[in-house]
Design brief:
The protein is α/β, with parallel strands linked by helices. It has one domain (27-274): Metallo-beta-lactamase, Chain A, CATH 3.60.15. It has helices at residues 2-20, 64-71, 95-103, 114-122, 192-196, 218-227, 243-251; strands at residues 24-33, 36-41, 44-48, 82-84, 109-112, 133-135, 145-148, 151-157, 169-175, 178-182, 206-210, 232-236, 258-260, 268-274. The strands form 2 sheets. The protein has a 7-stranded mixed beta sheet with strand order 6-5-4-3-2-1-14. The protein has a 7-stranded mixed beta sheet with strand order 7-8-9-10-11-12-13, with no helix packed on it.
């Protein structure tokens, strides 16, 4: 009887030990403005489309105080590992701001498409080593798969909208197996090449998606699930005048992936995921 009790007790303790070792992972997202975010996970930090000043009288722009914090590496923008820029539109990128930031941060690496990197390299105020700037290759996808500062970044040239001439990039960020996809301004208007990326196989934890084209109709939701299949979604590029409309619309969806809408700059949210890998 004692032996049986000991076996049962051991089994209970073993089960409790396994349960206690189940791992949760966290992705912290701080909204800056428009499509700009600070992504944090496992002690790593990535900035995306964070420095710009033109909202075309429609989109949110970062306040001067936030721009100053980013450029001067003040919390929460201290010890950022990578800066990513999706394309050279003025509501995503300002070369003088980015140059000021890079000049102040000799440890940071910037990854961007050629029209962005060319503007930075031509800026007369640039003082950093050119090795800090990674220009993406429009022909070879293999060259756009890099691991820098312990973060794997895969970059994809994807169509901005119905204008294929615009040089636009989406980023798949992998930090210790936690995956975040940022779509840039891609809005689902081109599906053939996007489908070839096979992002649905990547087990994406969080997708930061342009609010045009991914969620508002049943067809858009089917597209998102088929070609991206993320666990969570955060919508980007929402004009402040439409925030309430978008939030109210999201609340009505009960058969889709969890969607987050940030209402104001510098709001932060922690996304918790259980390890399944």
């Amino acid at each position: 009887m004692k032996r049986t009790s000991a076996v049962i007790l051991f089994g209970l303790l073993f089960s409790l030990n396994i349960f206690s070792q189940s791992t949760e992972y966290k992705i912290d997202v701080t909204y800056i403005a428009n499509a700009g975010f600070l992504i944090e996970s496992s002690g790593k930090k990535v900035l995306i489309d964070a420095l710009f000043k033109n909202g075309w009288n429609n989109y949110l722009t970062p306040a001067d105080s936030i721009v100053s914090k980013i450029i001067n590496q003040q919390a929460p923008f201290n010890q950022v590992n990578l800066m990513l820029i999706t394309h050279n539109h003025e509501d995503h990128f300002n070369d003088s701001m980015v140059v000021a930031y890079m000049n102040n941060n000799s440890e940071n690496i910037l990854i961007a498409p050629p029209l962005v990197t060319n503007a930075i390299l031509k800026n007369p105020a640039l003082r950093i080593n050119e090795n800090q700037i990674v220009e993406l290759d429009k022909i070879s996808r293999e060259k756009n798969d890099k691991t820098i500062n312990g973060i794997r970044i895969r970059s994809f040239f994807i169509q901005h909208d119905t204008r294929p001439q615009i040089e636009s990039v989406g980023f798949l960020i992998d930090i210790n197996g936690m995956k975040v996809f940022h779509s840039g301004d891609y809005n689902g208007s081109e599906t053939v090449e996007f489908g070839k990326l096979e992002l649905q196989k990547e087990q994406i934890d969080l997708a930061l998606l342009n609010f045009y084209g991914f969620w508002s109709t049943k067809e858009e939701r089917l597209f998102t699930d088929k070609y991206i299949h993320p666990k969570r979604i955060t919508l980007t590029h929402i004009p402040p005048a439409e925030i309430k409309i978008v939030k109210d619309s999201v609340k009505l969806i009960n058969d889709f992936i969890d969607i987050t809408v940030f209402e104001s700059s510098m709001k932060k949210k922690s996304f918790i995921f259980e390890s399944s890998r």
